[in-house]
């Protein structure tokens, strides 16, 4: 059963992909205006041991989840379909629509691309993404939310973080991962 989204959500590393370079990963969520979401991911880590690509021109890119990437999944209440948002510290992004669990993946065209800002230090990386939601919160009283991240270490190993991991291997698309309600 999903829980209402608190002001700050602590993500957990999947038990099969821990990293001693990472101390914590939290997400703060706010709704600055109807239909707009702001997610602020706060990664506390030894950044000399975390791979982050160089910041580039913002824009759409594919396969961002193969490297350090912060993600959100939104599912309208009662729907089998859902949306996947990927935000990279390189300021690249991607948005996909799925018709059901890992089915019917379609890139989404956005009228307004996400606004992404990144701040780094020796022991932290903060990524803030503000974007228009593809669903209306007024029309959809209880959309479900999964907050996740992939963090790549200096050896190229991926560590998977989520508010809730389903049993088995890491799987951000699994319905059990949609642990929060907007």
What would your notes on this structure say?
Helices cover 0% and strands 47% of the residues. The protein is an all-beta fold and 182 residues long. It has a single domain, classed as Immunoglobulin-like, CATH 2.60.40. The strands form two sheets. Strands 1, 3, 6, 7, 8, 9, 10, 13, 14 and 15 form a ten-stranded mixed beta sheet that branches. It has a five-stranded antiparallel beta sheet with strand order 2-4-5-12-11, with no helix packed on it. A hairpin with a 5-residue loop joins strand 13 and strand 14. The mean pLDDT is 90.
Fill in the keyword field for this structure.
single chain, 182 residues, mainly beta, Immunoglobulin-like, 10-stranded mixed beta sheet, 5-stranded antiparallel beta sheet
